[in-house]
Amino acid sequence: MGDNETILQQSGLTPDEADIRLKPFLSLEPEVVMTRLDDQLNIPAGVGASIDHGVLKLSGAAPVQWYVALRENTMLPSGVKAIDTADLTLDANDALSWLESTIGIPGSVEMQANNGDLLLSGSATRAWFRELERVIQLLGDKIGFSVDGLEKE
Whose CB among 13, 32, 52, 131 lies 3.0–4.6 Å from 27's, allowing a Cys bridge? Predict the structure, then answer.
């Protein structure tokens, strides 16, 4: 679409004859919503995204750091009523690296990735356990956590 003067000229009107009133408009067309989502969420390569009746469906393998940011973001993008991550997967080794960089792993705790799960053993302080519980809340729907061999100090 051209500028206002061009449109007026094409219509045979002068600026004095026109009364132009503009209002902001936020399109909810799926294609436009997807473009905004790509910009707002920085959807990584390897993650497929589609929108159906206001539900953003994500699939594929996602980086843990991106998934955590998605989970911690409490504001849904415009045009999205819900986010479905049922078909999204996380890599346990990536989760282990993220965990090490985020809450650290005490020397008294051994952690390893095994078939999509994180296995923890050893002992840790109650404060570290609280941090681990927060992590399990964020990742527990995608990564299994086995803490049977872990004791509180």
Answer: 32
